[in-house]
Design brief:
The structure is a single chain. This protein is of the alpha+beta class. It folds into 3 domains: 13-114, Nucleoside Triphosphate Pyrophosphohydrolase (Alpha-Beta Complex); 122-153; 157-276, Nucleoside Triphosphate Pyrophosphohydrolase (Alpha-Beta Complex). It contains 3 helices and 16 strands. The strands form 3 sheets. Strands 1, 2, 3, 4, 5, 6 and 7 form a 7-stranded mixed sheet that branches. Strands 11, 12, 13, 14, 15 and 16 form a 6-stranded mixed sheet that branches. It is globular. The structure holds zinc ion (ZN). Zinc ion binds next to loops. Zinc ion binds at residues 125, 127-128, 130, 143, 145-146, 148.
């Protein structure tokens, strides 16, 4: 397990919309398929394709998107479309790459997934159906027919560790693997503040009202556009019920059992936070 704090915006990444005239000697292409990346594995290490390798992977570069520079290397995003990949290239989920990419790479990967998906899903105007054109300066596409402008969609969300003293509240969903528990999370609805989302989601999922919020940090890098971590405390003896398939109030002392924290950055964060508490 890594020792870094919760993932944050990449600090050594310089974003840009237009590629420079002279590209860096080495390039990195974040080739996206759904929530995964095309990578080549060598032992525990993974490698991203370089720009020069894309034709050999059978990938069209028509929708190639420049992302910016990471450690002086130019980075691109591209949707893999239906290209059939052959060894040694394969799609690996972002979540599974969490431990194999650096924090900066993971941040750019999250950005790449969002931008590549945006490029594919906004080829046509949602207002009049005409083809859109990519803006040369801003990260957006424009419709020349009806003047609508479309920016990449972001989906703000909250994730929260609900605590009562040394206890942490985790829940399991019907869509989780058996025995998998996580902290509570949810997407912000139109017109909601993050705090309102937090209160609503916790009540919907486990049927309790929470209070005493403490903001922890933001994470815009990753897997499901996860955004904010908060910490709340509960009054003693709060009844637990709600829509989650199952609930687990973990008596964790200073540490949540490792077997309950497998698999997600948010759960690992919960473990670190409980240890720190
Ligand atoms: Zn239009």
């Amino acid at each position: 397990m890594k020792s870094e704090p919760v993932k944050s915006q990449p600090v050594k990444f310089v974003p840009a919309v237009a590629a420079p005239a002279a590209l860096s000697a080495r390039t990195r292409c974040f080739v996206v398929r759904q929530l995964g990346l095309v990578v080549r594995s060598e032992g525990a290490q993974v490698f991203l394709p370089e720009l020069s390798e894309l034709p050999r992977l059978g990938l069209s570069t028509a929708d190639l998107q420049y992302l910016g520079r990471l450690h002086e290397e130019d980075c691109f995003a591209l949707d893999a479309g239906r290209a059939e990949l052959s060894a040694p290239w394969a799609v690996q989920s972002l979540r599974s790459l969490y431990d194999q990419l650096t924090e900066e790479e993971f941040g750019v990967a999250g950005r790449a997934v969002q931008i590549a998906t945006f490029a594919v899903t906004h080829r046509f105007c949602g207002g009049c159906g005409q083809p859109t054109t990519r803006d040369a300066v801003e990260r957006c596409v424009r419709c020349r027919s009806c003047d609508l402008v479309f920016y990449p969609r972001v989906s703000p969300a909250i994730i929260v560790l609900v605590r009562r003293g040394q206890e942490a509240l985790l829940a399991s969903s019907a869509r989780f693997a058996t025995g998998f528990y996580s902290t509570l999370a949810g997407f912000v609805e139109p017109g909601e503040s993050l705090e309102q989302t937090l209160v609503r989601e916790v009540f919907e999922e486990v049927g309790i009202q929470v209070e005493n919020v403490r903001y922890f940090g933001t994470d815009l890098s990753g897997v499901r556009l996860v955004a904010n971590d908060w910490e709340w405390s509960l009054g003693d003896g709060a009844p637990l019920h709600g829509n989650a398939q199952d609930l687990l109030l973990v008596i964790c002392g200073r540490r949540i059992p490792e077997n309950l924290l497998e698999g997600t950055p948010s759960a690992r964060f919960a473990g670190r936070d409980a240890e720190a508490g």
